[in-house]
């Protein structure tokens, strides 16, 4: 599905991500990924873990840029439009599937089928709120589920998520993860919950200070290895 070969990724506050370091007199970019190589095959369920500042979101951003037309992204920033309803925010995930005129009419006066489809999706995500409710009136956990619903509504084979359940309790997190895994052929997700990473995913990738330090199938790793990674980073 995707192969990355010796990736060196830099981030610039004004220019965003780039794979080449700037050569001007004043250096404004920071290297966030160092000499990283990996291959992710179609059908894999991959968790990306690592301490804060390890480069997880940067790697995920790069992967999404390579797969953009065939992947649905659920990012930490959410990208919700506060003054629009739950329905409108979720339906925006389907804009690329329809003609612009269909989208315009459906956003002004939603069609019954789309209302039913989105209502069903919200039920599956345990989002028990009126679809007409504006998202600026929702809690943090509810907003996360709206962002998740919009990504699921894209109906892509690949789901890319950057800690999409961080504001949810462990039981809700586990149930929603099961939904994501069941609805997508391939999943690549930054995961904060280390135990969840090694129990729910096929493969675990760990980063530390922008470098790949672990890449194993789940049956080959254990919680002690993961704990040691975070302890070593904290000491350093």
Automatic annotation (TrEMBL):
It comes from the Bacteria. Pfam families: ABC_tran (PF00005). One of its GO terms (cellular component) is plasma membrane. Gene3D superfamilies: P-loop containing nucleotide triphosphate hydrolases. Keywords: ATP-binding, Nucleotide-binding. Residues 9-234 form the ABC transporter domain. One of its GO terms (molecular function) is ATP binding. PANTHER family: IMPORT ATP-BINDING PROTEIN, TRANSPORTER, PUTATIVE-RELATED. This is ATP-binding cassette domain-containing protein. It comes from Colwellia demingiae.
